[in-house]
Amino acid sequence: MIGRALTVVFFGLLSVGAARAQVEIVDAWARASLPHQTVTGAFMTIRGGGEATRLVAVASPLAGAAEIHLMTLHDGIARMSRVPAVEVPPDGSLELRPGGYHVMLMDLKRPLSVGEKVPLELVFETAGGVRRRLEVAAEVRPLNAAMGARKP
Amino acid sequence: MTSARSALRRLVARATAALLVLSVAAPACPAAASPFNARQLPDARVHEFSLHDADGGLRGNDDFLGRAVLMFFGFTHCPDVCPTELARLAEVVKALGPTAAKQVQVVFVTLDPQRDTAELLHDYVAAFSPDFIALRGSEAETAAIAKSFQVFYRRVEGSAPGRYTLEHSAYIHAIDPQGRLRLRIPPSLSPRQIADDVRVLLAGG
User: Fold this and answer.
1) Interface confidence (ipTM) of the complex
2) What is the pTM of this model?
3) Which residues in chain A touch residue B156, judged by CB atoms under 8 angstroms apart?
4) Which phi and psi (to 5°) does residue A128 adopt?
């Protein structure tokens, strides 16, 4: 899995702050979509950078809008809710995966095909208010990719 | 001395017998009596429905008699639960093996006929299995089948029109070869456990 820490592309600083947090994104993937299907989910593991950080915004050039959503399953009812931000544990990982937090890509500009890479931009904010932008390329996996599926 | 020993022997024999009765009786308690992993509905009965398939044809209960039906209610703009459950249903069919699989029909019923066109539904279920079928009704027909099957769903508005999502039951509904709704299968059951339940239904259980 560490060997597959392939999706980190580059860091970009939004604000000129000397934040030391180096959050890292690994194993980013998005579910393929069909023509006329205007939404899909994107998933990844976000590793903390030793400092309190929150994921506060997401975007993709292939989606008209992107939001952070939380899926919950309670008493057999699946619910989705938009969340403004999610904490990234400083010394742990935040998992964005089917059945939990995920990036919801909406108003897709075209269907996402298996194997292509979807550019995603994630904005993190430290406790001190320093914003950091991270770009990743999420690999598109089949529509039927199972929960927590990994690349074969 | 002898009588004391025989009294002790009798006591041991009685205690052993009591233990034996207990251990035999234990599996027969009501909670363990069901042959199913999923919850069996108390009243097994036919819930009539008639919805359109992807080709526009009407499909109802009678079309599936003689087969077990695994029915899931969802929508294609569901990023999470619906693809996961359909992928699990494909696993169930695989676990059943080729012979039993022929006696099972997986049916996806959309709760979002507004966005889920027949064409989209066709392509969507085909991504999981060429044998799955999708059914679609009008808003009123959808509400009616959901009510009949006791499937909860509710539209939740999103950050813009068209971005709405649905809260919905994530149970799989199992219908027996006589067309009776029998089981409500929770997402916690494994494909193997679901396949075992389907085998019981196919065997007339």
Assistant:
1) 0.77
2) 0.81
3) 79-80
4) -85, 5
